[in-house]
Specification:
alpha+beta, single chain, two-stranded antiparallel ribbon, 3 helices, rod-shaped
Length: 142
């Protein structure tokens, strides 16, 4: 069995409207009758908004709280950065497990990548500030 065959996508609503509209098309002195079928696929955006976009946005904001913490509060800043980074990675794998595997980059992948970049950037900023403070203390005479 191929991966993703038995998955159900509960976030897609399929509306099938069959119009029994008999249209006669004349081509090359022949008449053809046609049946018009309209398929309308709509995706419920609220599911992704509540399950991914808002929580990941909030995780990025929480990771930025470390900018207001004292630079000497090393355990607080490290635990905040690592926790938000791991939570975002877990959320990413949870959302991707519910989607069918595709070979191209999806918009959700870009969003998660940007959020992970911002969270990792906040953690990297702490490392740079901590290192610069350490170098400053060592270079100060006295």
């Amino acid at each position: 069995m191929a991966l993703g065959v038995n998955r159900t996508l509960v976030t897609v609503i399929i509306k099938i409207a069959v119009n029994f509209l008999m249209v006669i098309i004349t081509r090359a002195k022949r008449e053809y009758s046609c049946l018009k079928v309209t398929l309308e696929l709509t995706r419920q955006f609220s599911y992704y908004l509540l399950q991914l976009y808002i929580p990941s946005y909030m995780l990025v904001i929480v990771s930025w709280v470390s900018f207001w913490l004292d630079k000497e509060a090393v355990p607080a800043r490290v635990s905040l950065g690592v926790t938000t980074l791991l939570t975002m990675a877990t959320q990413s794998s949870g959302i991707n497990s519910k989607l069918p595997p595709v070979s191209y980059t999806k918009a959700i992948d870009v969003w998660i990548g940007v959020c992970l970049t911002f969270i990792f950037g906040a953690l990297l900023e702490f490392a740079l500030v901590n290192y610069a403070g350490f170098v400053f203390i060592l270079s100060t005479p006295g």
